[in-house]
Specification:
By secondary structure, the protein is mainly alpha-helical. The protein is built from 9 helices and no strands. Helix 6 runs antiparallel to helix 7 and helix 6 packs parallel to helix 8. The protein is flat, with a radius of gyration of 20 Å.
């Protein structure tokens, strides 16, 4: 716990300036800190509780990972049998089992990665702003959890542009999309 206190001397939401020496961002640990700081204030310092909260977050994230993987395989293969078999294989993979019992942010990052991938897949079916914004949120959360989410900084805008170009074959739909995007960017400036 003392080492944990040294990492967060200014509280769980304080972020140091980014440097290239960071192993990965601290979103996972900040999320755990939102639970642990109030508990530590009332109950005192207990390493067992810190480790339990970190592991509990990873177990929940692994459950979310399996659920999103089910949705992804169901959408891609449109077969319940394939979804069941592939999800069971994912659930018993040694890496998934090991990371779910560890205190590292990998399962949480994988949840956000698969959620962003799912939204990119939905964008490929047709451009919808809600899928774009959900993908942007999930991609940003993946990036803030671990730097492996960097791919979505490129993949999501490219997928959205390709989906918009694909919708251009319907002139009325293309006008709606381009106008909504122009209004959005006009508000941002």
């Amino acid at each position: 716990y003392q080492a944990w206190r040294n990492v967060y001397p200014n509280g769980p939401l304080h972020a140091e300036p980014f440097t290239l020496t960071h192993l990965y961002p601290k979103f996972f640990y900040n999320l755990a800190g939102l639970i642990l700081y109030p508990y530590a204030h009332h109950a005192g310092d207990q390493l067992q509780v810190v480790m339990s909260v970190w592991r509990g977050l990873n177990v929940l994230a692994t459950g979310g990972l399996i659920a999103i993987f089910w949705c992804l395989t169901q959408r891609v293969y449109r077969s319940t049998l394939v979804s069941i078999v592939s999800t069971l294989l994912l659930a018993v993979t040694p890496d998934v089992l090991w990371w779910s019992s560890n205190v590292r942010p990998h399962p949480l990052e994988h949840v956000f990665d698969l959620a962003a991938l799912y939204t990119c897949m939905r964008l490929c079916e047709g451009f919808r702003q809600r899928w774009f914004w959900l993908g942007a949120i999930f991609g940003a959360l993946a990036f803030s959890t671990k730097f492996g989410g960097t791919v979505f900084l490129i993949l999501l805008p490219v997928t959205a542009m390709l989906a918009m170009v694909h919708d251009v074959h319907d002139p009325i739909r293309a006008q709606e999309i381009w106008r909504s995007q122009a209004r959005l960017f006009h508000r941002v400036r």
